[in-house]
Write a structure and sequence with these properties.
By secondary structure, the protein is of the alpha/beta class. It has helices spanning 70-84, 137-151, 171-174, 186-195, 198-201; strands spanning 8-9, 30-32, 38-40, 60-64, 89-91, 99-103, 110-119, 123-131.
Amino acid sequence: MTGRTHALWMAVLAAIGCSVGGIDRGMSAVCWSVNDLAVYVGPGCAAEDAVLPVWQYLPLRITVDTDVDATVVGEAGEVWNAAVGCPTFYVGDGAPDDVSIITGGIMGAVMGEMHMSGSVATGPTHATVVIRQATTARALRLVVTHELGHVLGLDDDTGIDESIMRATLDAATLADDSEVEPQPLDTDVALLRTYYDCAGVVRS
C-alpha cells in the first residue's frame, strides 16, 4: 500500500504507526509519487522534500456508497464547515468528485482510512475514505469527521481525548450513550483557517 494509512481504532490504547507532524505541527506533510499518490514523511519521503496537502479550492464534493448514510456524512462535513468558517464539504452527485466515501475491507480494528492523490502543481485532486461499516450513526459520524480532517491536511492529535483528530477512539466513545463528543481543537481550527482563506479558495 502506498502512503501512510490514517486510521481510527476502536481498541483502547491501540497503536497507530508512524504519526509524523507536517511542516506546521498539527498538519501532515506529503511527497507526491510518480503515480500521483500521497506518500507521507518517512521511507520514500524525506522531510525536506515534503509539502502540505492543501486543496487549492473549496468546497469539496463528497460522493458516498449506496450503503453509507449520506445524511450522516453530511453532518460530518458540517463540523468542518463550521470550523473553517466557510463551506468546505458538501454531499452531492456528479463531477467533480473530490472525495469518495466507500466501505471496504480494513485490517484489524481500524474503522477508517484515507488515501489521497494529486501532484506538486495541483495539490490534492482526490481523496478516498474507506470505512468499516459502522454499527451506529454516531460511530459513522465520528469516523467520517476524523477522516475528513485528514482530507483537509490535519495530522493526528495524540493524547488529547477531546479532539476529533485523536489517533485512537475507544468503543465507549463511539457508543450512542457516550457523554464524550470529540470536536476539532481550537489549534486545529486555527491551522485550517491559516491555510484555507475562504475568500481566496472557494470554487466559483
